[in-house]
Amino acid sequence: MDQPRWEIQPGRVMLGLENLCPSSQSKATLVYLVEERRADGAAQQRYVLKCAGPAVTGSEKEKVEEALCREASALTRLQGVPRVAQIVDSSAGPHITYVLIKLVEGQDLRVVLDAEQRLGPDQVLTIATELCKTLTIVHGEDILHLDIKPSNILLNYTDYTTVLIDFNVAALDMASSRNSDRPVFFKGRGTAEYVAPEQLLTDKSARLMYSTDLYALAVTVYELLVGRKLFPGRTRKNYASYPVPRREELRETFDQLFPEVSSQALSTLIEGCLRSDLNQRPIESAEAFQSALLAALAPCIVLGEAPSDV
Ligand SMILES: Nc1ncnc2c1ncn2[C@@H]1O[C@H](COP(=O)(O)OP(=O)(O)OP(=O)(O)O)[C@@H](O)[C@H]1O
Ligand SMILES: [Mg+2]
């Protein structure tokens, strides 16, 4: 019998799926677009498959595989939750560790922003409202995403809803671990241009809260509205010295771009979410973020076009 061939190359049939092409190539994790074939060869369902890249070996490979398993656990717990990527299958070795996820027909917001520069306040309100509803459920399941950023949010072309993806740095069981003696260690996971200081600046046990995700959501909302990254070029190395804009600076930017929105309410929301001490952040839940954003952007909503509550 032929040995299975585990190298992944375009056109090779793997796990019963035809691999079309790598859809993205990050350093260690590869994301492929794959397509299920019927016996008659006709294409059926399409998926994305995440696995370690072929060049990754040793302890780095172990870390990538650990992250894939973490993602599989989070997505399994979130199965059926609307607007979260839906896991179809996963495996942890011996030949390959992978996560198979339903394809969302659309684009991630990084690609959308690169094409559109920035989005209108009404579009941002719709997208952020959906994300807040999704995060309310995710947090209710005792999961923190910890990597909210435009490339991890997909805009679904079929119904213009958003889908949250990429749970490979997620923290599971945060609330329960806070109430136990079991320390939770975080070693600098997440994207420095977006994530909160408690994720990166603490080398041992770090207390993370829902507001840790809301920090990155605020950075993302700023970028969607303004069309520029809030912290371009911020890295783990320069993180501690990287300046955070004051409320007045944020307000000036919003005033110039959107005379119709409440720049005071918007700058208060964003500045509050960006405070380095998470005990000083006034917005503690995704629901509170959603209400505050609605209050700030409400003046730009055309009557009858408010984001739906579904
Ligand atoms: N379910 C999906 N449907 C459609 N496209 C997807 C899906 N999952 C991922 N993608 C695309 O692949 C890209 C990379 O996927 P993902 O973010 O899960 O992997 P990653 O390697 O961990 O990313 P990074 O390290 O760059 O954050 C996404 O930004 C998105 O464009
Ligand atoms: Mg990603």
Please give the structural blueprint.
Layout (H helix, E strand, L loop, with lengths): L12 E2 L2 E9 L3 E9 L5 E10 L5 H20 L9 E6 L4 E6 L3 E3 H8 L4 H20 L2 E2 L8 E4 L5 E3 L6 E2 L1 H5 L18 H4 L9 H17 L20 H11 L5 H11 L12 H12 L13
Antiparallel strand pairs: 1-2, 2-3, 3-4, 4-6, 5-6, 7-9, 8-11, 9-10
Helix pairs in contact: 3-6, 3-9, 7-8, 8-9
The structure holds adenosine-5'-triphosphate and magnesium ion.
Magnesium ion binds next to loops.
Structural summary, described in words:
The protein is an alpha+beta fold. The protein has 2 domains: 13-102, Phosphorylase Kinase, domain 1 (2-Layer Sandwich); 107-303, Transferase(Phosphotransferase) domain 1 (Transferase(Phosphotransferase), domain 1). It has 9 helices and 11 strands. The strands form 3 sheets. The chain has a 6-stranded antiparallel beta sheet with strand order 1-2-3-4-6-5. It has a 3-stranded antiparallel beta sheet with strand order 7-9-10. A hairpin with a 4-residue loop joins strand 5 (87-92) and strand 6. Helix 3 packs antiparallel against helix 9 (286-297). The longest helix has 20 residues, at 58-77. It starts with 12 loop residues before the first strand and ends in a 13-residue tail after the last helix. Residues 1-7 have low confidence and may be disordered. Adenosine-5'-triphosphate (ATP) binds next to strand 2, strand 3 and strand 4.
